[in-house]
Amino acid sequence: MRKDDLYITVPSFFRCPITLDVMKSPVSLCTGVTYDRSSIQRWLDSGNNTCPATMQVLQTKDLVPNYTLQRLIQIWSDSVRTQRSDTESNRVNSVNHDQVRELIKHFVNDFRVHSELEMNSDRLSKLLAFSEESAENLRFVASVAAESDFLAILTSFLVHNPKNLKVVEKIVPLWKMLLVERGSLSKIGKANDIYPAIIFALKHGSSKLKMEMLKALEFITSTDSEAKSSLSENSDLYLVLLSFSTINSDWNPDLMEVSVSCLISLAMLRKNRVKLVKAGAVKSVGKALSTAEMGTGLTDKVLRLLELISTCKEGRLELCNDGDCVQAIVKKVLKVSNEATEHAVTILWSLCCLFRDHRAQESVAKSNGMAKILLLLQSNCSPAVRQMAADLLKVFRVNSKAVSCLSTSYDTKTTHIMPF
Asked: Which stretches make up the U-box domain (predicted)?
């Protein structure tokens, strides 16, 4: 092993005392000192009868192999070799600014000639790795891409080859990053043109591809009002996004959270809320809320989506028909976060006070909802939530059946806080 191979710190006892190189075949003299066999053999063959390190006269010139040390050196050498290999690999894969320009230039030229991207997969990988290293790198790639048709070419391929998942999986992560950096889909294409690629990837892609495409869709629907309006006309989109809420062996809470974010963005347009209801949003999302183990972020978003749905008549009807969903909403009050509590109370107020649906009121009573409302009024909630809680108590005050349920399920002496 050469010295320049060992730029990583070498343990001192791995070095031969004579040459200071890492020993290949360590052997020990009778003095207990270990040397590399070739080095000590040359010393002895030169007529010396002493130990080079201690200068003691040798009683015997026998060389005893030090197998333990040899094994330790071998393990260490293998580790160094692996590190060097990784370093060399990273060095080969890394590119500088000039190389980025060349990669994009050749990429664009090759596509113009051959109209396909399979041959450019290695370039895509290098550009993606470079872009992911830092925000500065991403901005540089985006600036170079803006000077050419690079992003438009990626978009064009997605539009015309949505079923070529092998290449699409390589394109989408970089396409999404550049799209976010560019700031708008409308500058490079039309939402309806890219729609088939989005749907196909969400239906048939790997989990990684689905996540990348969902993030791209989340960005499009939250920043581009024109694209959001256009995409919202496609009924299949709601069904595909809601499919990530289906609780089965393939359920992925991360995918569901991003898909719900997309649905919330779409539901910000009032006309889309009825479409969501018709696509089965209350049933699928409500079931997930009542049966799945969700984190705080996902629960907040699910309740926010249901809150938006509850603002339309069709949404309130579906919620009132789904007693399990209403009870699941009640259970989230004071259990998840302040945000989740606010969304949940708003939904309950909409159903029980605004819509005055007796089925919803019964579901709230059965799930001990009024006890939670009483506790909520004693908490440090916002004025808006406090007012809605007070309104809910008034509704149940005049509903003798609800009062009966309340009296049997919750014995309290805090009636002084009731606003009547």
From this structure: 9-83
